[in-house]
Each structure stands twice: as structure tokens, then as C-alpha cells.
Design brief:
CATH superfamily of the largest domain: Aldolase class I
Strand order of the largest sheet: 3-4-6-7-8-9-10-11
CATH class of the largest domain: Alpha Beta
Number of helices: 13
Radius of gyration: 19 Å
Low-confidence stretches: none
Shape: globular
CATH topology of the largest domain: TIM Barrel
Number of strands: 11
Helix content: 40-55%
Strand content: 5-15%
Mean pLDDT: 94
Length: about 325
């Protein structure tokens, strides 16, 4: 039986060990970062970074973007794009890796993605999005989730769109309650998560501004959501999932490792490929977000910004953490 403060999460009759999910983040949530989170525990379901449905059907198995797939059972593969046939073909191709399921990205607010009509732009195209969700649903029996931003001004607009997702076969929705324009410049409006929960029969997962265990408990209490997804907060604090579960179970969380030990663990997860372009990009982006868990973020991140060599980035990062005894 679940302890007070949380309940088990089930998506399309598939059990998720905890109601906590790691967010899809470009150049972050690859196999290395998912492995790092796995070492500390508490996360019930991991999301890949977004995979282009335009490219996946032609992607080679040894591609860096597909690295690690097939080694995990609790991973959701996130696809981006607005071509129903490309999405269907991508799901079919990726099923060989036996993921937990698939996610359609309706939340990315990058200008390049929005210009293509992908990501958050799709929230304003109900007809096209319906075709995309239906194509994915027809391609797999596995769970399908939809991660989206709140682009609407009226609750009725949101209700119509969200119920369309449910009708087309989505098994859960993840609500990041910010408009594409706000990015991270304003607090997430958690009331939109509560509204979505009141509208739908499928699970609603909240996302946005979770940086401490207390934040997570407050979101559950205020919105009654079925689960919580964490992005930036999990990079700054990779132990946050087990800390949240300890709080929800009224238990004491294990002692946190030093920041230097966390960095070393991540470097080991990156492995021998750390110097390749893709892994170096992941290392650098990790350090940028990891800095937010340090007393003065810029002191750590500033010297790394212009660096492109993995060995140099590692050397500078290690030196800072040792010098500051973090």
C-alpha cells in the first residue's frame, strides 16, 4: 500500500514504480544521464531527449542519438514532428528497443522547432495533432503520453484539445503550464495542471518548478495530479527523486553524495565516448544545469562556457569542485 501523500502510477495498465518521471531535455537526457539518475533511485520512468520523427526512420542503429536504447525497460521515447506517417514509421522502427512507450512532443518552444510547426506549435492545430496521435496509437500497443505546454487563454479551449488527445488514444498527458513565450521567465501556473486533472480520465502528470522535495509534495497537494515530471531540478540535484520519495513515505533519505562525487559518477556514465561531439555536448549542457545546484552558479559555469574539449571541461569542473570543497 502506498504511504500517505502518494499513490501508485499506472499508464495504460503498465505499472510505474514511483509517480516520479525525468523530463526529456535536449543534450541532457541521453543514456548517460538516465543511468546517473538510476544510480540514485526514486525515478519511476525516464524520458529520452526528443527524437526527430523525420530522421528516425533512416537513423542507423549505431547512431549516437540511439545509444543505450534496448538496455532499459523504464524509458519513454519522445518523438517530435507533425507528419503522421513519419511518426508511425518512427514508432514501428523504435519498437525493436522494447521501450516502456512513446511520447509526442507538444511542448518544445525552441524557435527552430516552432517554425516547423512542431512542438508547442501543434497545440494550436487540433486536427493535425489528432492525426499524429492516431497514427502513433495505430502503430503500437505500448503506452503513449503527450507532453505539452499551455498555449490557450480559455479553459474551454484547453478542455476541447485535451479531450481530443484522450479520444485519439493518449494514455496520459504531461502538463508544463507555461506558454511557449514564457519559457522559464515566469513561475509555472500549477492551476492549469489541476484543471487538466478535473477534465480527464487518463493520468495527468505535472511539470514545472520542482526543485526540492517540498515543491513536489506541494504540487501533489495543490493539483491532485497523478505524477510529477522533473527536468532542470533533476540535473541540479540528481538525488531529488529518492529524496522526494523519502518525504512522501515519511522516511529519512540517504545522505547525499558530494557535488564532486556526482560529477565523477556522471563522467563514468558518459564512458569512453565522452570526447565525441554528442557526448561532449551532453557533458557541457549537464554542467550548465548542474551549476544551478551550486552556491554561485556562474563561478562554476562561467569558465566552461566557451570550452569545446571534453578533457578541458572535465579538468576545470573537477578543479572548481575540489577547490570549493563541494
Amino acid at each position: 500500500m502506498a504511504a500517505a501523500g502518494w499513490k501508485p502510477l499506472k499508464i495504460k495498465n503498465c505499472e510505474v514504480p514511483t509517480p516520479l518521471l525525468s523530463a526529456p531535455m535536449m543534450n541532457i537526457s541521453g543514456y548517460a544521464f538516465r543511468s546517473l539518475l538510476g544510480r540514485f533511485g526514486g525515478c519511476g520512468l525516464y524520458y529520452s531527449e526528443m527524437l526527430s520523427s523525420r530522421k528516425v526512420p533512416q537513423e542507423r542503429a549505431e547512431s549516437a542519438i540511439l545509444s543505450g536504447l534496448g538496455k532499459e525497460t523504464q524509458v519513454m521515447l519522445q518523438l517530435v514532428g507533425n507528419d503522421a506517417e513519419c511518426l508511425r514509421a518512427s514508432v514501428k522502427k523504435l519498437e525493436v528497443y522494447a521501450p516502456f512507450g512513446f511520447d509526442l512532443n507538444l511542448g518544445c518552444s525552441r524557435a527552430k522547432i516552432m517554425h516547423l510547426g512542431w512542438g508547442a506549435a501543434m497545440c494550436r492545430d487540433a486536427k493535425g495533432t489528432a492525426a499524429c496521435v492516431a497514427a502513433m496509437r495505430n502503430a503500437t500497443e505500448k503506452p503513449i503520453t503527450i507532453k505539452l505546454r499551455t498555449v490557450w487563454t480559455q479553459k474551454q479551449q484547453a478542455k476541447t484539445f485535451l479531450r481530443m488527445l484522450e479520444a485519439e488514444g493518449a494514455d496520459a498527458v504531461i502538463i508544463h503550464p507555461r506558454t511557449p513565450e514564457k519559457i522559464f521567465t515566469r513561475p509555472a501556473k500549477w492551476e492549469w495542471i489541476a484543471e487538466a486533472k478535473s477534465m480527464l480520465r487518463i493520468p495527468v502528470i505535472g511539470n514545472g518548478d520542482i526543485f526540492t522535495p517540498a515543491d513536489a509534495r506541494r504540487m501533489l497537494e495543490q493539483t491532485q495530479c497523478d505524477g510529477i515530471m522533473i527536468g532542470r531540478g533533476a540535473v541540479a540535484r540528481p538525488t531529488i527523486f529518492r529524496e522526494i520519495m523519502a518525504l512522501l513515505k515519511n522516511e529519512t533519505a540517504p545522505a547525499s553524495p558530494s557535488k564532486a562525487d556526482i560529477l565523477e559518477a556522471y563522467i563514468r556514465c558518459l564512458g569512453e565516448d565522452i570526447s565525441t561531439a554528442k557526448r561532449t555536448a551532453e557533458l557541457k549542457t549537464f554542467c550548465e544545469y548542474f551549476a544551478n545546484g551550486l552556491p554561485v552558479p556562474h563561478w562554476f559555469w562561467g569558465p566552461l562556457q566557451g570550452k569545446q574539449d571534453a578533457a578541458e571541461i572535465v579538468k576545470l569542473a573537477r578543479s572548481f569542485l575540489v577547490r570549493k570543497k563541494l
